[in-house]
Design goal:
The complex is a heterotrimer. Chain A has twelve helices and six strands. Chain A is an alpha/beta fold. Chain A starts with 5 loop residues before the first helix and ends in a 7-residue tail after the last helix. Chain C has nine helices and no strands. The chains are: A alpha/beta, B alpha/beta, C mainly alpha.
Chain lengths: 285, 264, 212
């Protein structure tokens, strides 16, 4: 082919074709789900075993260290995990680490309204939302040392006196921490709770997985749920398919499309760009 | 499960080694700040890339965009400010317009006056104080994504010749690096956040990974405290390396000595 | 009195005493100091929250200045101030339902998500551009990247289970090693920075004078 032809196109395609292709490949399966099978990874199984071990009456500190943007990625894990805690009868204390996230607990309760009703969960007796109480490390440290002194009302201003939070005085009274994170105050929660012995499991966004795995190795985190895929796998394991599993079609095809573009780019590089840079070699004129 | 080698009355179990290391670290930093005049730091290759980028922008008559990070006064921000000072001086020398987007978090409000002072002084020292334009240091927003929107807008409108993004950047880094690449600017970034390093290495023309940023900052500022920090960090890195190797060998030989020592 | 409070030595002394009150009980078993430390941390948490108020007042002052001088884009600044006041008013009508909840759910959520979602497109175009076998190192990066990408797609694990151990090996060895190295560097760097601040070698942190 003269002047490079298709190889030149492969080597020098406009990035906007990548954007368009990704858009189509993601929107298509979301509008018309296919139901691609998924495999459950060992980390998700471990996560499920850890959260399922939380028993009736155990106080779970459910910390949402995410903004709305990150919530959309880890929503499936959040809902699936909360469902497990509700079905196990745990007492749940929800706190958030970003001002944007103050409305997220209401959205979670709405999504899990059926489970809350079936398990006769009463606000104030079985679960409570404290709102944005992690602006910085000092606040987390204060919570760990003196919970009652730091927080005396929930996110709507209703006093927490008389609720099950009366039992929580320091970090020692928290039985389990379930953290959902895009960063924010997770390290502070780890420093002031988990490193002192409170069991902690984390659901993080994709880019945080490599750094979070270090804490998994050292035992600081008991389990790690990996981003949207982990959430989808948890939905599958718990038998409650939802938005996470729906998104896996788009997730899968998006990855394959990306690999396709990488292959195309490399073919273009090898058959055109490299020859332009290093000469034609044995190519016939 | 590791168990401490010994306990000391009065010291909480498992924290003695941590206390010891903290005391050693503080002592070494004080020592090197006082007596470390001979500390030499090699020139980080990234600085050549910065100078080349500024030179190229000057030749093309395009502005430079340089940011020092989102956070308040952290380790990375101070390194970013040192590099900003260097870039500002180069820009003043070559008569290139320098745009410094500021903001990204509430804590960045505290750093902003220092950044303004640094850029102003750089122009003053080059005798080009009339070229200093305070409007070229816009405060975009205290929110990360709003800051990104403004930053990307600046790049799209001004079409810079170079974008130098150092200091602490989080999920905004990818947005900025890719837009910079799309506008055709030379993109130099610093990977201060582990999750960003891989993506920035792909998106940037040059990346200063982790410690290189602070080493570059120390080299440029010639500040005794920063140089002493780099020296102490190097000592601790060698110590960590020794512990890792020795621990690996001893553990495989059946001894948990290092594990127990670090748990003391 | 105010002159004494403004001196660098006084401010550094306060910082050092506060640091020691929190630092010592972490390592030494002193219950009395532990109680003081807890109270100090609670006070610090409350004081820190006032930075939000400081940020808002600073923003209002600054932007009112821009609006009065009618600088370029002043209407955007006016819009921002109006939204700050509106959100304050909305929050008084209730947080769970009503206009506050609507704004968070219908405005902030999509805006925040869009910025995050755009990252996916940028990652895609960066990967497509960067993963090219230009030399041996780049080829190794390409092969590793493709294996991990393939594994991340859930369907691959069901069709080709053999990829799991390879992908997990790559992330568990090389990936983790890089992360651990970074963690050690950052931790030591942060400690050293803290020592520098306590020794008074970072006056800009205290806001008591620039360095140049």
């Amino acid at each position: 082919m003269s002047n490079g032809g298709i190889w030149k196109t492969f080597a020098e395609y406009d990035r906007r074709y990548v954007y368009l292709a990704l858009f189509i490949v993601v929107i298509g399966p979301l509008l018309s789900p296919i139901g691609v099978p998924i495999s459950v990874s060992p980390s998700t199984r471990q996560y499920y075993e850890v959260i399922n071990a939380v028993g009736e009456g155990d106080i779970v500190f459910f910390t949402l260290n995410t903004e709305f943007s990150g919530y959309n990625e880890i929503q499936s894990g959040i809902i699936a995990s909360m469902r497990v805690f509700i079905e196990n009868g745990a007492k749940i204390v929800i706190a958030v680490g970003h001002p944007e996230a103050t409305s997220i607990p209401s959205m979670i309760f709405q999504d899990l309204n059926k489970e809350l009703t079936e398990n006769e969960y009463v606000y104030g007796e079985d679960y409570i939302s404290l709102g944005y109480i992690f602006p910085n490390e000092a606040a987390v440290a204060a919570l760990a040392e003196d919970f009652q002194g730091t927080v005396s009302q929930d996110w709507l201003g209703v006093p927490t006196a008389g609720t099950f939070l009366d039992e929580v005085k320091t970090w020692k009274d928290i039985d389990f921490i379930s953290d959902y994170t895009t960063g924010l105050a997770t390290t502070h929660v780890m420093n002031h709770f988990a490193l002192r012995g409170t069991p902690m499991a984390v659901n993080c966004i994709g880019v945080m997985i490599p750094s979070s795995m270090n804490y998994l190795d050292t035992g600081v985190y008991l389990a790690l749920l990996n981003s949207m895929r982990g959430g989808a796998e948890l939905e599958y394991l718990t038998g409650h398919p939802a938005s996470g599993l729906t998104a896996m079609d788009a997730f899968t095809f998006g990855h394959y499309m990306l690999i396709g573009f990488i292959v195309i780019g490399n073919l273009g590089y090898l058959m055109y760009t490299r020859k332009q840079t290093y000469g034609r070699g044995r190519k016939k004129q | 499960m590791a168990s401490p080698l010994f306990t000391i009355p009065g010291i909480i179990e498992g924290r003695f080694i941590g206390l010891l290391l903290n005391i050693v670290l503080a002592s070494l930093v004080s020592y090197y700040i006082k007596y470390g005049k001979g500390i030499k730091i090699r020139r980080v290759p990234g600085l050549d890339a910065i100078e080349e980028a500024v030179g190229r922008s000057a030749e093309m008559g395009k502005p430079i965009v340089c940011s020092y990070g989102l956070d308040g006064f952290t380790y990375w921000t101070l390194a970013g400010l040192s590099i900003l000072s260097h870039v500002a001086r180069l820009a003043a020398k070559t008569g290139t317009r320098l745009i410094v987007p500021t903001g990204g978090s509430d804590a960045s409000l505290i750093v902003r006056p220092v950044a303004e002072e640094i850029v102003k002084n750089a122009y003053l020292m080059e005798g080009e104080d009339d070229k200093y334009n305070p409007n070229d240091l816009p405060f975009l927003s205290g929110q990360q994504y709003a800051y990104v929107g403004g930053y990307v807008g600046i790049m799209q409108r001004t079409r810079p010749g170079a974008v130098i993004m150092v200091g602490s950047h989080y999920s905004d880094a990818m947005n900025i690096a890719e837009t910079s690449n799309a506008t055709g600017a030379i993109t130099i970034t610093s990977g201060s956040y582990i999750s960003n390093v891989a993506a920035l290495a792909c998106a940037s023309d040059y990346i200063l990974i982790g410690e290189e940023t602070s080493a570059a900052g120390a080299y440029l500022s010639d500040d005794m405290a920063q140089k002493a920090s780099i020296r102490v960090q190097d000592i601790f890195k060698w110590l960590s390396l020794g512990l890792i190797i020795f621990g690996l060998l001893s553990y495989n030989a059946g001894s948990e000595f290092i594990l127990n020592l670090l748990s003391t | 009195m105010s002159e004494i409070i403004k001196t660098k030595e006084f401010q550094l002394s306060i910082m050092l005493i506060s640091f020691l009150i929190v630092f010592i009980p972490y390592f030494l078993d002193i219950p009395a100091l532990d109680a003081v430390s807890t109270k100090l941390i609670t006070i610090a948490a409350l004081v820190n929250v006032f930075t939000i108020a400081l940020a808002v007042s600073s923003l209002v002052k600054r932007n009112m200045n821009f609006i009065q001088r009618k600088t370029r884009g002043w209407y955007f600044k006016a819009y921002m101030l109006i939204t700050i006041v509106l959100m304050l008013v909305f929050s008084m009508f209730g947080l769970e339902t009503g206009p506050y909840h609507w704004v968070m759910f219908a405005v902030v959520n999509p805006l925040s998500s869009v910025n995050y979602g755009i990252l996916a497109f940028y990652m895609a175009s960066t990967s497509a551009r960067a993963f090219k076998a230009r030399n041996t190192k780049a080829a190794l990066l390409l092969i590793t990247g493709v294996i991990v990408l393939l594994y991340q797609a859930p369907l691959t694990g069901t069709v080709f289970p053999g990829i799991e151990p390879v992908a997990l090996y790559l992330t568990d060895t090389f990936g983790k090693a890089a992360g651990k190295m970074f963690l050690i560097s950052i931790t030591v760097g942060a400690l050293v920075f803290g020592v520098r601040v306590l020794l008074g070698n970072e006056p800009s942190v205290l806001g008591i004078g620039g360095k140049e």
